[in-house]
Every structure is written in structure tokens, then in C-alpha cells.
Amino acid sequence: MPFENEAFDAVFCYSVIYSTDYKRSIAEIYRVLKPGGKLFVNTNDWGWYIKNLFVTHNDSPGFSSRLMATQTILNTLRFGITGSRRKGRNLVMPQADFHRFLMRTGFEEIQSGPFSEQAFIPSDWHSLRAGYDTICVKGR
Question: What is the reported pTM?
């Protein structure tokens, strides 16, 4: 990101980080946050994509939720095996793995949500985590 180190008090990342190499994105966010700065992330876990294989969501002439889910699952497997991903394709971000990565990066006080009653994505689907929020703080 074209910002100086420790430039921001907070970063808000809603429903977009899974479209990136999230490990690189988190490293950059960590770099631009001031010590004690807060990060909010909303993202998706396996349940969201598995749900979309069975129950369509916001399908339109140019978008198929089943195709998106299939591409995401395949892209995630590819990323896990080879470390590379297809640009423009999402990655599944299991909450436990993501939170461990945040801790290794240097984030502290990691809290899980959803933090709103009006979540766009349900927090689970048939006992599989679907969507979740995370708030954490950059270590001082």
C-alpha cells in the first residue's frame, strides 16, 4: 500500500480481504497501523461457500453463487498446496487459522464476532462457521 509505516489508527476491512492473498494484505495492514491501532475484518469461512453450493445467494445474469463457491473452494485448495492463488478468486479463511496468523503477525486482543444483530452473512450454516468478524489490536 502506498502509505507510510504506522500511518493509521484503524483499518476497516469488510467482506473484501478473502479476495486477496490475505497473508500479504494483513502484513501490509500491520505495517501501516500505529502501535495500538485497531483492525476490523469481516470475512467468510467454509460454511458460507458450502451453503452457496446448495442454496443460491444473489444470483444474477453475470453471477452464479454456486460457481463462485466452487471456484473459491478450488482456489483455497490450490493456495494451501502450492502457495499460489488465481487472482480474482476468493479464498476460504477459516477463523482459527486466520486468528493464529494474526497472532503470529503481532496482533493482540483478538475478539470474534459477529458484532451486529444485522449481519449480512449468517455466522453459521448447519453448524459450519459461515461468516465472522474479528477485531484486534496491533501490539505496542
Answer: 0.86
